[in-house]
Amino acid sequence: MRDIHAKLKPNPFAGDTGEVDPALAAALALENKADRLEAVVAQVALSRVLVPVLAHAHPGRTADGGVVEHESVDKDVCKQAAMIAVEAPDGRAAMPIFSSAEALRAWRADARPVPVHTQNAAIAAVAEADGLLVLDPGSTQPVLLGRPAVAALATGETWRAPWRDEELPGIVSRALAGIDGLIGLRIMPGRKAETGIVLAVPEDLPREQVSAALAEASSRLGQVPEMTTRIDSVELAPARVSNTTARG
């Protein structure tokens, strides 16, 4: 018996009570959406999360007392959780994870909370879903973790928000160079999308030219591979500036 116990791996979550980690709770309590996202990504990298696992009904017995043939269930709880994906606002599938057992029960009472390392959940999201995680779906403030953030969690790297990426403005500027009417840009947290790119245009530029410039910018950015590895979702918006500012 001693030999058997010696070979068993210790359970890193043996004392887990299902309560939210205080540091993660503090991150979730931040009012600013962008600050909350950055803090949550940084903290879940250091915390465990809970994934939902659903009970499967017994397939029944055969006439001779055997078990009816049925499809086997993957024993990897992260893969099971990825199959219960929830829909992100843009229609993509996001794997649900939870900060606490209470948050999971509020979302789905029939699911069993299983603690896992966040990195394992991120790996499953990349492999089985659309590369997205959503923390505490069903709560008043669910947090969607985009593909670059999830990829960083899966590889153990540090995620940098696009609006803090010092290289990104140069990448975007080079991609949009030469578009008539565009005279500047600013990268910031988005309102609906993860990231917003504000494009400066002269105040007297006709509306149809502004629309054409935005359409061209969107088309060009969609062809830049680095955009998909640095930004999850983006929204473009024009900002009219005075002719004096434009000349300056």
Question: What would you note in describing this structure?
Answer:
The chain is of the alpha/beta class and 248 residues long. Helices cover 38% and strands 20% of the residues. It is built from 11 helices and 9 strands. The protein has helices at residues 2-7, 22-28, 33-44, 77-82, 101-107, 118-128, 147-155, 168-176, 207-221, 225-230, 243-247, and strands spanning 48-54, 86-87, 93-97, 111-117, 132-135, 143-145, 184-189, 195-202, 234-241. The strands form 3 sheets. It has a 4-stranded mixed β-sheet with strand order 2-3-5-6. A hairpin with a 7-residue loop joins strand 5 and strand 6. Helix 6 (118-128) crosses helix 7 (147-155). The longest helix has 15 residues, at 207-221. The termini are far apart.
Detail the topology: elements first, then pairings.
Layout: H1 2-7, H2 22-28, H3 33-44, E1 48-54, H4 77-82, E2 86-87, E3 93-97, H5 101-107, E4 111-117, H6 118-128, E5 132-135, E6 143-145, H7 147-155, H8 168-176, E7 184-189, E8 195-202, H9 207-221, H10 225-230, E9 234-241, H11 243-247
Parallel strand pairs: 3-5, 8-9
Antiparallel strand pairs: 1-4, 2-3, 5-6, 7-8
Helix pairs in contact: 2-3, 6-7
Q: Give the percentage of residues in beta strands.
A: 15-25%
Sheet with the most strands: spatial strand order:
2-3-5-6
Average pLDDT works out at 86
Helicity range = 25-40%
Discrete helix count: 11
Q: SS-based structural class?
A: alpha/beta
Order of SSEs: HHHEHEEHEHEEHHEEHHEH
Oligomeric state of the chains in view: single chain
Number of E-type strands: 9
Shape: elongated
Computed over alpha carbons, the radius of gyration is 23 Å
N→C terminal distance: 81 Å
Low-confidence stretches: 57-62
Strand count, sense and barrel status of the largest sheet are: 4 strands, mixed
